[in-house]
Structures are given as structure tokens and as C-alpha cells.
Amino acid sequence: DSLSGFPPAQYLLLLTRMCADYLVDRMTLVIVSFLLGMLFLLAAELFIFWRYFSKAAILPPPKFEDTPTQLPEVLKSRLEHSSLKQKEDCIWLNFLLQFLFSELRDSLQLRRFLT
Description:
Elements: H1 8-55, H2 73-81, H3 91-104, H4 108-114
């Protein structure tokens, strides 16, 4: 009733232990491979970014001249001739957009949007 000198219960325990050792070895190998892959990837990214940014030239900040702002004549005339009893016609939106454009006309985002 024994297989190769082992009783069946001990043979089953030995087989279970060998399978468990095999799985633990495989799991350890997977975890170590995952961690080493992560470290290698981070090192490669650091190397690439370091090379890219070390070669980039440092540019001085752009200088914009400060031009005086003024309202267009159409909006000035609307301001002078408007009264509070007239029906609202969104003139406030024109003034708001004119203000924002005059403040942001030298920004790169607005230049990209307009071109």
C-alpha cells in the first residue's frame, strides 16, 4: 500500500509541499521581476528626461511692451449715450470682452487661439 516506500498520506503531503515550493518560487520570481522592471523603467525615464532637459537652452523670459489701453470709439459712444431706462442689449458683454482682450492680448494662449 505504499508508493516508492512512502505511505499515501506522506506522499500526498510531499507532493503538496513540492507544489507549494514551486508556486512560491514562481511567485517570488514574478514579484522580483515586476519590481526590477519598475526600477529599470524609472531609471530609463530619468535618464531620458535628464538628457532631454540638460540639453535644452535656457531662454530669457519674453519681454512685452506695455501699450496704453483704450476703448474703441464705438464702445465709447455707447457709454456716453446710454441711459438706465433703455432696454439691456448686452453692452456689458462687449465691455467685458474688450477688457479681457486688452489684458490678455500679449499672452501666448490668446495668440495661439487667434492664429
